[in-house]
Amino acid sequence: MLAQVITVAKPFLPFKKRIAPLRAAGYAYEEIFLKAEAQWLKVSGGDMSESGINDLLFEFKTDQAKAWKKLAGDISLPKSPSLREECDRQTAEYFQHNYHVAVTINP
To answer: Model pTM?
Structure first.
């Protein structure tokens, strides 16, 4: 009986609609992140002015907003505090491991 209920309800669940745009947004974010990483040596080596760093940061944030709006802007995601905490922990761990930078993430 449960299988029949799931079969009937499955088309109404939004999971499949979320996967494709989120995957595309993930690829776009990865591209933006790689661009930022390519500029990191200039930033960390002191080769860029504060104004140049701010311009880069604004450019990356603009690219991120455009990618989200274009690829995943019309979907809604459920909020999960425990998942958010895990993502924040992994992000902080990544920056500590790869860049020796301690980050604090404020949701």
So the answer is: 0.59
Pick left, alpha or beta for residue 51 (phi over 0 → left; psi -120 to 50 → alpha; otherwise beta): alpha
pLDDT tens-place string over residues 4-36: 666 666 655 666 677 788 888 889 999 999 999
Q: Which two tokens stand for residue 62?
A: 């603009």
Contact (Cβ atoms closer than 8 angstroms) between residue 90 and residue 84: no
Rg (CA), the chain: 19
Angle between helices 50-72 and 15-44 (to 10 degrees): 170
Residue 3 structure tokens: 């299988």
String of b and e for 56-74 (b: at least 16 CB within 10 Å)?
beeeeeebbeebeeebbee
Angle at 26 between CA 22 and CA 28, to 5 degrees: 115
